[in-house]
Amino acid sequence: MLALLLAMSLSAPPPGFRQPRDEEGRFANLDPVESPGFGDLLKWQLDRTRTPDRAPVPRAEPDLGRLARPPGPGEGARLTWLGHSSFLVQLDGVSLLVDAALEEGIGPGAVVKRNVPPGVPIEKLPRIDACLVSHDHYDHLDLPTLEKVRCTVVAGLGQEALFRKAKLPYVPLGWWQSTPVGEVTVTFVPSQHSSQRGLGDRARTLWGGFVVQGSSATLYHAGDTGYFEGFAQIGRAFPGIDAAMLPIGAYEPRWFMRNMHVDPGEALQAFQDLGARTFVAMHWGTFKQSDEALDEPPRRLEAERVKRGIPGERVRVLAVGEALEVRAAERGASSGARAAAP
After folding, report:
1. Is the pTM of this model over 0.90?
2. According to the 3-state scheme, what is the secondary structure of 235-290?
């Protein structure tokens, strides 16, 4: 029933907007950039700089009793970092999982193993109302996790066959389309990236980010993305974003990663373009996917923050399992966010 209500409530994109596609019908980015091809991948693998697959990452013990009750209307939002790009987002009585990858490994055969356990194990999650999936790469769309959670999936266009096979209710969204989950509105917004799960299916499903709006908080999750002019566009469409969950890892080497993954400096520029009040770091420390050390991104982020003169309380690097309470500016403190009591 929830899936039916969601599907019947889709909003339309802005007037005149057409979902970008190339001449072969594949989805395309707003900015005309090339995603790395197989030859680029091979060159990188042959020439890459090897750094350790393991590194210490801070962990916090989650308060499961607190997480069992989402904040109600007017009580703001709670963000709990589960590792990588996975968040438990709770507001207005609703619990959402975003890009949930909570198993021991990802990819075919779970070949890429976790560096740090998930902030909340699957079996200890609260009741989940919907899973939001930014795109179909294995570290963001982890079917074993979704099949255990078993709830409605909200994701980009073109993934009907995948979710039908998994017997998961699916609400497909194009860019700028919205759907309600309870009293919360979820909007799929552009990112600069691509999609692919196998041979020959590159860009056949749509990628993006999410804006989640409740009664007393507006949140943004970027998914995977390179730096693009769309951040400013999203900020104009959703003025007053209270917290922006932005990736800071998997950026080296730049010649290979630049168009698909921001580095910490670009993530801070995106934060400023969005006009958001609080930066929440993600996409680092969990899975080894690139050449920089697993624990390097927060150090780079802090150096860039100081260089740009952004107050420290506005840029948050959570421990895995740590929760952050977020409220709209008119209802909360000037920083807009505070750590939840452990």
Report:
1. yes
2. HHHCCCCCEEEEECCCCCCHHHHCCCCCCHHHHHHHHHHHCCCEEEEECCCCCCCC
